[in-house]
Design a protein that fits this description.
The strands form seven sheets. This protein has a six-stranded antiparallel sheet, with helices on one face. The protein has three domains: 2-143, no CATH class; 150-243, Immunoglobulin-like; 256-386, Rossmann fold (3-Layer(aba) Sandwich). It is built from seven helices and 27 strands. It has helices at residues 104-107, 110-119, 122-133, 277-289, 311-324, 359-362, 366-374; strands at 2-4, 10-13, 20-25, 31-36, 41-45, 51-57, 64-67, 73-75, 83-87, 96-99, 150-155, 161-162, 166-174, 183-188, 191-192, 194-202, 208-215, 221-228, 237-243, 256-263, 298-305, 330-337, 339-341, 347-349, 364-365, 379-386, 397-401. It is 16% helix and 37% strand. It has 405 residues and is α+β, with helices and mostly antiparallel strands. The two termini are 30 Å apart.
Length: 405
């Protein structure tokens, strides 16, 4: 994309990420708007062609995401899976992809995105957004220094059979950011596994090779590995193994599932009315109950909808699931309804009796939900549907849209 002076001299030249299909000026002539062949709409500063904002609407019409050059973004629920960072590993192997969702805590900044087209400068947008939060000015973050680790299971291969409870797992681990890996979670069917005989061997700039033996139940099993550093957790690497030995009724014992489902369509404040949130919670529990005798031996459900879903009762529901779940059980928390960020950017769920002007006393902060989940003894699953040393090849990490179906 090139801007010419009327004399024919080039004022600026900007290389776009894809073929330009359409171009226009905003009414104040301060911005150049382009539609690109990769499905994005992008805004450029007219004075020098610098890109300020990109917008990617999913073709299904329900998800979208907008992001700045440094990767600060805002999105619809689920929209932060539509883009991410490609990291080229040169000759070391296939490139790595990190969905924006993996770095949400660092880069989800609707306040920055909203201000960038008014300020025409990302640094100025960050400064104003931080000032409104009462924070010191942030600097644009170097994504390559914040990326989560990457872990892959090398053996056994998915679909392999086993006939002994002890299974050896070999894996490859590397840290694109150079940040130390704090832990590797090993899960069997989503639950913590028992490990022994661990070994880790450094294999140069590619990372580390490791191995361990785990005790698996004598049945078909899904083994998952998740690595964590200071900034984020990796995408899980998993395999499914087939049991080929003798069965034991005792070892085929299924866990108990505890479910807290909250859905608010009808609010005390009529302006907040929703159409489907309460029904979503009821549909969710009906679907889960169908798993009794299949994935779970027993299912215990507490459902709070509309007038039942007051702040007090939702808090009691979280305490109930905290105290009920044992180490061998599974807990699910489903929340549907309005959600809102306060002035500091912290998310709050709105129960039936919430008052938007009094979030601190009438809404449920996400920190309380996260704290409750963290103390549950068994495996916990949370679903929310609010209306919410440096590797030598880690030198290029830019947010790119991906074509997810």
């Amino acid at each position: 994309m090139i801007q010419f002076h009327r004399t024919g001299k080039i004022i600026w030249r900007f290389r776009t990420k894809a073929e330009v299909w359409a171009i226009n000026l905003t009414p104040d002539s301060k911005l150049v708007v382009t539609a690109l062949g990769d499905g994005t709409i992008r805004w450029h500063r007219r004075s020098d062609g610098q890109e300020l904002l990109a917008f990617f609407p999913h073709h299904g019409g329900k998800r979208w995401i907008a992001w700045t050059p440094s990767g600060y973004y805002m999105s619809s629920p689920g929209g932060d899976t539509l883009i991410g960072w490609h990291l080229n590993r040169a000759t070391k192997g296939a490139l790595d992809f990190f969905p924006a969702k993996r770095l949400r805590e660092k880069f989800y900044r609707p306040d920055v995105v909203i201000k960038i087209l008014a300020t025409l400068d990302e640094a100025e947008a960050i400064k104003k957004a931080d000032a409104e939060r009462g924070q010191n000015q942030s600097k644009a973050r170097n994504v390559a220094q914040l990326l989560p680790p990457v872990i892959n299971i090398l053996s056994p291969r998915g679909g392999a059979t086993f006939d002994e409870a002890e299974v050896k797992i070999d894996y490859l681990l590397w840290s694109p950011s150079g940040a130390p890996v704090k832990s590797i979670k090993v899960l069997i069917d989503g639950r913590p596994a028992r490990l022994f005989d661990k070994a880790i061997i450094k294999v140069g700039p590619e990372g580390y090779k490791g191995s361990f033996n785990l005790l698996s139940p004598r049945r078909n099993a899904k083994i998952s590995l998740i690595a964590e550093n200071t900034y984020a957790a990796s995408l899980p690497s998993f395999i499914k193994l087939k049991w080929n030995g003798a069965k034991s009724e005792q070892l085929e014992h299924l866990p108990t599932l505890y479910v807290l489902a909250v859905g608010v369509s009808t609010y005390q404040d009529a302006n907040l009315k929703l159409a489907f949130a309460a029904q979503d919670a009821r549909d969710f529990t009906r679907t889960i109950n169908a798993q009794k005798g299949l994935a779970y031996g027993k299912i215990v459900v507490k459902t709070l909808t509309d007038k039942e879903a007051t702040l007090k009762k939702v808090r009691h529901g979280l305490k109930w699931i905290q105290s009920s779940v044992g180490e061998d059980d599974v807990a699910m928390v489903f929340i549907a309804g309005h959600g809102i960020d306060d002035t500091s950017g912290s998310y709050h769920f709105l129960p039936h009796n919430a008052e938007v002007s009094k979030l601190q006393t009438t809404a449920l902060p996400y920190t309380d939900i996260r704290s409750a989940l963290a103390t549950i003894k068994g495996l916990h699953i949370f679903s929310s549907t609010p209306a919410i040393p440096a590797m030598p090849w880690a030198d290029r990490a830019e947010p790119q849209p991906t074509r997810h179906g």
